[in-house]
Amino acid sequence: MKNLGRSIVVTSDGSTTIGIPSWNEHYHSTHGAVNEALHVFIQHGLRYWQSQNPDLACCNILEIGFGTGLNAWLTFLNNGNSNLSIFYDGIDAFPVQLEFIEALNFTQLTEPSKADIFYTMHNQKWDEHLGLTQNFFLTKIQSTFESINARGTYDLIYFDAFGPRVQPELWTVEMFQKMHNSLKPGGILVTYCAKGSVRRAMLEVGLQVERLNGPPGKREMLRASKKKC
């Protein structure tokens, strides 16, 4: 992974992503990087969780695949509730080099006036806890996804690993058992992937799974929840 060639690609909504030609894979949908992230992780993840938990004062989020930082950035911008504190853990074994981050146009298309926050996220040291604002706290964890061993820690998981075609080992019953263990009762997991084998793996570990309309270019996505006690 460290030595894979990467390139900047412009997606259909005008936002950029990073391509890995040797895998025929991209960090985000080529049908619209920002639109996909807003649809899957913000609308059906963060905002849905907020609608179900209006009285909670904090939300603990785990992102599987910190990557370009787009999901963390959009989560920061879309909190929309000064009374909610977000504690965001983003895990990635192979961080994206800053030269690629600086070539992305996420901040220009969303909130240029706060671009310093986006770059602070990426300049932050790995495995360091940092308060970016008084209600948004980020920890970037440089590790493999398989190393996750959390128990009842997270309210919300953004499962944004590379797809099953190129990394099938990340979409298994064993991995979703880790995700189930990591969630609090009533916690939510969202992912762009709606493959049948992925849905069955989620069901096998006891998650309740919904098929939802997908972002541009995808018919469906999945949202899973852990049963409340």
Key descriptive features of the protein:
229 residues, Rossmann fold, eight-stranded mixed β-sheet, three-stranded antiparallel β-sheet, 7 helices, 28% strand
Domain tally = 1
Could you list the spans in which at least 5 consecutive residues all have pLDDT below 50?
Answer: none
In the CATH classification, which architecture applies?
3-Layer(aba) Sandwich
> Structural class of the helices, strands and pairings?
alpha/beta
Q: Globular, elongated, flat, extended or rod-shaped: what is the shape?
A: globular
CATH topology: Rossmann fold
Q: Which strand order does the major sheet show?
A: 6-7-5-4-8-9-11-10
Helix content: 25-40%
- What is the overall pLDDT average? 95
Output the number of helix runs. 7
- Whole-angstrom Rg: 16 Å
Number of strands: 11
From the N-terminal CA to the C-terminal CA, the straight-line distance is 40 Å
Regarding quaternary structure, how should these chains be classified? single chain
Order of helices and strands: EEEHEHEHHHEEEHEHEE
Largest sheet: 8 strands, mixed
Specify the CATH homologous superfamily.
Vaccinia Virus protein VP39
Query: What is the CATH level 1 assignment?
Result: Alpha Beta
Portion of residues in beta strands equals 25-35%
